[in-house]
Amino acid sequence: MRIYLAGPDVFLPDPGAAAAAKKALCVAYGAEGIFPTDPWPPSDLDAAEGAQSRAMSIYARNEAHLRDCDALIANLTPFRGPSADAGTVYELGFFRALSRPVAGYSNVTQRFTSRTLAMLGGHARRRADGVWEDQDGMSLEDFDLHDNLMIDGGIALGGGVMVVRDVPPAARFTDLVGFEACLAHLMRKG
Hints:
By secondary structure, the chain is an alpha/beta fold. Helices cover 39% and strands 13% of the residues. The strands form 2 sheets. Strands 2-1-3-4-7 form a 5-stranded parallel beta sheet, sandwiched between helices. It has a two-stranded antiparallel sheet with strand order 5-6. The radius of gyration is 18 Å and the shape is globular. The relative contact order is 0.17.
């Protein structure tokens, strides 16, 4: 089984070490881990210059990897805000649209609404009907889920697993216990 390893791990100071650790766990379970930065056969986009052209080349490579994998594990630990990394969420949705198995993990247990309220500081209020709203009068999701309902729902309705646990802040993006639980789940499902 080829498993796409989605997550903000590509932004770590040493993404290669993160990739190696996840790939080693995949091998131990009889799978092959595919990290977003893994090479892909060159395309016309690879020769392009400039930031936007490089971005399109990265996108094309990642989409090719997604299409070539059998399953996906997403690191959904909140990243630069109250929700998961936007690119990871896109990849998760893309993979669900392919009707392939997905699993997700987060190393933060605080629920989405609580994280959003904390991010907003004192700029949120509860309306008379009990619904939270932000400073622009827009309602907040309040479903007692780990993240946006489309993320949790996509994993749950796709037969996946969402592993949520707290780890020390310094290990938030490197602890792999949740990742390994997702890997074990996918391998059991075959």
